[in-house]
């Protein structure tokens, strides 16, 4: 097939430069490769919404020397972002909203911790546990940090609507960076830092809404807060008007602890939290979130007794429910409750998923005997 086309002198220079490198036999081969590559770019954009090109990569630098990025076309180049180069001292992809306040900064307004969790009964079952979709601590850390910085610039807390409008958008920027980080270091899903964060692309508005509702807060018609920060007693209403929110004392402390990724001090690529953060969370949960510590104790005891796969664990947890509870809740909801608690425990280093082919089992990590302390009544 023969195709004729007009090109500018600039494009002709690009073609001549590529041909002079000796990697192509003629102009036709260059054009054929270029069209195939452009098709891949557009397919990736349609699927993922964003393409990261590491401009620090030598092969990319060489290509950009020969082909100006604008030659990709406006429809493609508008989706291309410069990917930050990962190093322990360079976190260009972390939005300023999630930066750490100076050590001598005075804490802003601190509100009283919520009194209790609705599910804190004498014998809480799987349905009473903290909602399974609140399944990661890193998004909560980021939201606490974002709230701390927003509230620091205001007096009397921040309107919930403002927090939900601002933090998820910056969480999307961070999610894009985390996703690049995961891909660069070939992190598995279990190791991934970007899980639960919104990322740019099709459906980003719904993803940001989900992030806001789950990892900041939502409010029902009666004015009751929900969301992971509230369930873990990191935020509360400023007063009975139920208009503005602020961090509790524990929420403020959590926000100000150094985080390995946010501060660019990771010791290994899949490190989510510092030892200090993990110790803080475990002590806080033991002292203030009894429903969560109960779920940890239940899971750890079950694993010790041999219920160490998702199906076995579900079976034993569901068998402890009453007949009416089993009818009231779907199997998928109950499995989600178990999965959420498991994911939070993995974040804290209490257990790990061991993959054996397509099967998964849970293993107690036994780091420093933490689980033994949790098993104590």
Secondary structure: elements and pairs:
Layout: H1 9-20, H2 27-48, E1 51-53, H3 58-66, H4 74-77, E2 80-82, H5 138-152, E3 158-159, H6 160-184, H7 204-215, E4 218-219, E5 225-226, H8 228-231, E6 235-237, E7 244-247, H9 249-256, H10 275-288, H11 290-304, H12 310-319, H13 323-328, H14 331-347, E8 351-356, E9 359-364, H15 370-375
Parallel strand pairs: 1-2
Antiparallel strand pairs: 3-7, 4-5, 6-7, 8-9
Structural commentary:
The protein is mainly alpha-helical and 377 residues long. The protein contains 15 helices and nine strands. The protein folds into two domains: 74 residues, no CATH class; 277 residues, FokI Restriction Endonuclease, Chain A, domain 1. The strands form four sheets. A three-stranded antiparallel β-sheet has the order 3-7-6. Strands 1-2 form a two-stranded parallel ribbon. A hairpin with a 5-residue loop joins strand 4 and strand 5. Helix 5 crosses helix 6, helix 5 packs across helix 9 and helix 12 packs across helix 14. The longest helix has 25 residues. The protein is globular, with a radius of gyration of 25 Å. About 13% of the residues have low confidence.
């Amino acid at each position: 097939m023969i195709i004729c086309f007009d090109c500018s002198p600039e494009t002709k220079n690009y073609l001549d430069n590529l041909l002079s490198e000796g990697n192509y036999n003629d102009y036709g081969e260059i054009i054929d490769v270029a069209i195939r590559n452009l098709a891949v770019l557009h397919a990736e954009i349609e699927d993922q919404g964003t393409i990261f090109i590491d401009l620090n990569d030598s092969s990319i630098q060489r290509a950009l020397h020969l082909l100006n990025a604008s030659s990709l076309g406006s429809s493609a180049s508008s989706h291309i972002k410069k990917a930050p180069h990962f190093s322990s001292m360079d976190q260009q992809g972390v939005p300023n909203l999630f930066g750490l306040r100076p050590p001598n900064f005075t804490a802003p307004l601190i509100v009283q911790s919520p009194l209790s969790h609705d599910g804190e009964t004498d014998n809480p079952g799987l349905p009473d546990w903290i909602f399974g979709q609140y399944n990661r601590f890193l998004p909560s850390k980021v939201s606490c940090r974002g709230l701390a910085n927003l509230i620091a610039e205001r007096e009397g807390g921040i309107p919930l609507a403002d927090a939900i409008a601002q933090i998820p958008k910056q969480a999307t920027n961070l999610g894009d960076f985390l996703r690049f980080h995961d891909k660069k270091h070939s992190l598995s899903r279990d190791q991934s830092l970007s899980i639960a964060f919104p990322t740019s692309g099709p459906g980003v508005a719904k993803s940001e809404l989900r992030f806001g509702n789950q990892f900041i807060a939502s409010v029902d018609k009666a004015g009751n807060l929900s969301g992971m920060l509230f369930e873990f007693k990191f935020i509360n209403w400023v007063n009975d008007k139920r208009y503005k929110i602020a961090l509790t004392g524990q929420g403020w402390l959590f926000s100000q602890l150094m985080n390995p990724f946010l501060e660019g001090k990771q010791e290994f690529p899949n490190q989510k939290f510092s030892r200090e953060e993990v110790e803080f969370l475990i002590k806080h949960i033991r002292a203030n979130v009894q429903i969560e510590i109960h779920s940890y104790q239940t899971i750890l005891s079950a694993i010790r007794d041999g219920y160490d796969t998702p199906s076995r664990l579900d079976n034993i947890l569901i068998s402890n429910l009453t007949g009416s509870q089993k009818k009231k809740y779907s199997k998928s909801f109950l499995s989600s409750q178990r999965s959420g608690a498991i994911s939070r425990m993995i974040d804290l280093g209490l257990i790990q998923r061991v993959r054996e082919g397509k099967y998964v089992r849970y293993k107690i990590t036994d780091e420093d005997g933490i689980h033994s302390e949790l098993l104590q009544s």
